[in-house]
Amino acid sequence: MNTEKCDVVVIGAGVIGACISWRLAQAGLRVTMIDASAPGAGASGSCDKAIFLQSKRPGVPMHLARESRSMYATLADELDADIDFHPSGGMVAIETGAHRAFMETFISAQRAAGIRVELLDGDSARQRQPELAPHVLGASYSPDDAEVDPLALNAALVDAAVRAGVHVRRHCEFLAITRRGDRIESVETSTGSITCRLVINSAGPYAGVVGDRAGVRTPIRPRRGTILISEPQPKMVAGNLLCAQYVASKHLGALPGGTEPRHGIGLSLGQTASGTLLIGGSREFAGFDKRPSLDVLAHIASHASRIVPALKDVRIIRAMTGLRPYTGDGLPIIGRAPEVEGWITAAGHEGDGIALAPITGVLVRDLVTGERTTGDFLPHLSGDRDTLPAPPMAEAPSAGSAPTTRRHTS
Predict the structure, then answer these.
(1) 350 DSSP 8-state letter
(2) Measuring CA to CA, which residue among 251, 250, 218 is closest to residue 346?
(3) Residue extents of the structural domains in the chain
């Protein structure tokens, strides 16, 4: 078994963990990034490509996303890589009067926050998205929405982290921490011990399990999301498309008397450079089970084709399902854990991990170094904030009990 020494161990090599590792290494820290599988094998490798601002709730979520979106403008140059980033704009299709009323209020608050967004009638919406169904009443449109290839982004972040000095350990599962008093002394993994003073829990949907293994309360649950993938098609979608049902259901209590759609279904539609359509999606609580039911797949397809009828003639070649890290209040947890000195949680982004990766890397770097190079977001993102629900009993993703935290008292 190997023994290694570093300043920081980052758990999780998705876009969040990779961005954090890169930024910390740039700040001069010795970083080891571990992943139970491989970079991009989790949520970052099973998501769509949209960077939406107009789906974010006004207030901290909106300002956080806006700051992160601004960082994307220079990110490819910083990474010295093509991440297929495009400021292509985005739309939210409106089907009902209730959805229109919700979006009017939502858009008003977004404009007040400085987001460029307009409300289109049905004809104007179909001029921008010709495949929208005749019954669609209108849409909101924002040129500030963008897109990026999440796989290319994850790979570029890992490569940049390695160039900055990060040691990446694949197929290396976090098991426990060893403490001397209240301080972290080392991390125990499936491939050996790593001596360190700081640990960043960026394990996404597994952050709750990882936290339990360290004795840290981490109210994050896995929420299953499924996306249908088509064979390549001629150009069908301009930018990225959501529906108002998706946006409304994302924000609890958004519609008076409204209920969560079955399986959390709401349209998300985008098209890759190769012509493949990414058709989503669902939001379900199913523990760590990644197997979607045929009923979910059928509901995604029928809902999407109702809004974009041309999808009825598209051949679906597969579906991809990932687990999203859910907190319950629409914000990630980024902050120090009071239970263990040196433990930082940076997870819980749910479906906004791609959009918020740049700002998360900077916020964690600032938290570690004591600098303040971006907005005053951290007080709103602590793991003990009042808006977080109590975590359910953790359900381990594999058989066997988690190792206990080890202590040295001398």
Answers:
(1) G
(2) 218
(3) 4-45+151-220+329-380, 90-143+221-326
